[in-house]
Design goal:
Number of helices of chain A: 8
Strand order of the largest sheet of chain B: 7-8-9-4-10-11
Largest sheet of chain A: none
Distance between the termini of chain A: 20 Å
Number of domains of chain A: 2
Largest interface: A-B, 17 and 24 residues
Distance between the termini of chain B: 45 Å
Shape of chain A: globular
Shape of chain B: globular
Strand content of chain B: 15-25%
Number of strands of chain A: 0
Oligomer: heterodimer
Strand content of chain A: under 5%
Order of helices and strands of chain A: HHHHHHHH
Order of helices and strands of chain B: EEEEHEEHEHHHHEHEHEEHHHH
Structural class of chain A: mainly alpha
Helix content of chain B: 25-40%
Number of strands of chain B: 11
Number of helices of chain B: 12
Chain lengths: 207, 273
């Protein structure tokens, strides 16, 4: 006889407890970078959950909204942990070994480089805004946040053009280069495998 | 006299959680013009960021005009302004006028007063008549001037500049240097300039702070520091080209000193003959 499925509220509570426990672990381990990297998935989960709760169909919208948010959060958490702990060359090596299409590998490599460049630019722009009192008070902060987002998008576009020119100047003609990254060592390989299983579980297991 | 800027800290933080400089004891009097010199990665930018409350301190404090500074907002309110190294990071508005007005409006000025302040700053930065131009249409040198105008519009009494002449053509370098000296003199402001442009330093500053090996290696008059060959070697710097040429030609250099600017060299040469 099959056991009755757990109540969704119980599972959500368990997910929240796991989230708090993992945050506590990160604080205990003193990993501020990893903690910071959790902010984007947290914001995305919050936005998606709120959106579903506000505009979703049906009467009881809060539970599916919370479920969606917790899934995004969990997947984002695992993804961020993977990127924060595993050195990128080893991550690319593992992906190549798993027969990931080369185009995707190149995308990951470029995305990581752009993430650093854009992050540095965003920090500099935010500093410039603070130096002109742009983050004092809620209205100014909202306006500055909007400007910061706009400037980041603008910079992303111009940075993409520059990167494309730079690639062309180094002989890129659309052909993908073979991946030369090393395979991860045993501890990192185990971690990557566990993270991949967790990621699949977050995304594919039925609710 | 209350110093314009004082920093007293065991260490100053850089990015990625490491300490860039330490220990740092610094005191700048009002109206001083100070150059911060050092090789790439010596900590020049970190020092300026610490002065504005943008970098972490270990066991210490920053004071601007006697006020303890913990955040950039406090630094700005205490009368400090920082021009960032890359003008692209500093320009936030659509047109030059829009951009320069951001600071005064945030500081609480009403629109007419902010407009007047912005126009004055734009003119002082040498961009009069360019108010309505889109910032993306400006050349690199004009962007530098626009960034400068944005800070001038905040009427700072302590003016910090991070590599204000980098990326400019030779004439642009000289124009910006002259502009900075004029603005500092007219407003009685303290000027702190982090720079690699050793040829411009004698015209820009009277005092220099040399950074290297993770600390302040020397702090004194520009003429003395450029006469210290061992210090220049340690800090991966060089004397201005005029001084190097003077020594290379075998002209007399009393106590290692040599003329630092062209007019000085001509005057020394006239005295010699």
């Amino acid at each position: 006889m099959r056991a009755p499925p757990l109540d969704a509220r119980v599972r959500l509570a368990a997910a929240a407890a796991a989230w708090v426990a993992s945050l506590a672990l990160l604080v205990r381990l003193g990993r501020p970078r990893a903690l910071r990297s959790l902010l984007p998935p947290f914001a995305l989960a919050l936005a998606a959950g709120t959106l579903l709760a506000l505009v979703g169909a049906g009467g009881d919208r809060w539970l599916p909204a919370a479920t969606l948010a917790s899934r995004i959060l969990a997947a984002g958490w695992v993804g961020c942990a993977l990127v924060a702990w595993l050195p990128l060359p080893e991550l690319l090596g593992a992906l190549a070994w798993l027969r990931t299409p080369p185009a995707l590998l190149e995308l990951v490599a470029i995305a990581d480089r752009q993430r650093h460049a854009l992050g540095a630019h965003a920090v500099a722009v935010r500093d410039a805004q603070r130096l002109r009192l742009g983050w004092t008070g809620l209205r100014r902060a909202l306006r500055s946040a909007g400007a910061l987002g706009g400037l980041a998008v603008w910079r992303a576009i111009s940075q993409a053009e520059i990167a494309s020119d730079a690639l062309a100047l180094r002989g890129a003609r659309g052909r993908l280069l073979p991946a030369l990254e090393p395979l991860p060592g045993w501890p990192n390989a185990l971690f990557a495998a566990a993270a991949t299983v967790a990621l699949c579980a977050c995304l594919l297991l039925p609710t | 006299m209350i110093p314009s800027l004082s920093i007293d800290a065991a260490a100053i933080g850089a990015s990625a959680g490491r300490w860039a400089l330490g220990p740092v004891q610094l005191r700048l009097e009002p109206g001083e013009r100070v150059a911060v010199l050092g090789a790439n990665g010596a900590g020049k930018t970190s020092l300026l960021r610490a002065a504005m409350g943008l970098a972490r301190l270990r066991d210490g404090e920053v004071r601007i005009a006697g006020t303890v500074i913990r955040t950039p907002e406090e630094a700005v309110r205490a009368g400090a302004g920082l021009v960032l190294q890359n003008p692209e990071d500093q320009l936030l508005g659509t047109t030059v006028l829009d951009d320069v007005m951001i600071g005064p409006l945030h500081a609480g000025l009403d629109s007419p007063a902010a407009l007047e302040r912005a126009r004055g700053a734009i003119a002082a930065a040498g961009l009069a008549g360019q108010e309505d131009r889109c910032v993306d249409e400006l050349s690199f040198g004009e962007k530098r001037r626009a960034g400068l105008a944005g800070v001038l519009a905040m009427a700072p009494s302590l003016f910090l500049l991070d590599e204000p002449t980098s990326g400019l053509d030779p004439r642009g370098e000289q124009e910006i240097a002259a502009l900075l000296v004029r603005v500092a003199r007219e407003r009685g402001a303290t000027l702190v300039i982090a720079t690699h442009a050793v040829d411009l330093v004698p015209a820009l500053a009277d005092r220099a702070i040399v950074l290297g090996e993770g600390r302040i290696l020397a702090d004194g008059p520009v003429s003395e520091l450029f006469a210290d060959a061992a210090l220049l070697e340690r800090s991966r710097l060089r004397a201005p080209s005029v001084a190097e040429l003077w020594r290379a030609l075998g002209h007399p250099s009393p106590a290692g000193r040599a003329p630092l600017t062209l007019p000085e060299a001509l005057s020394w040469n006239a005295d010699r003959s």
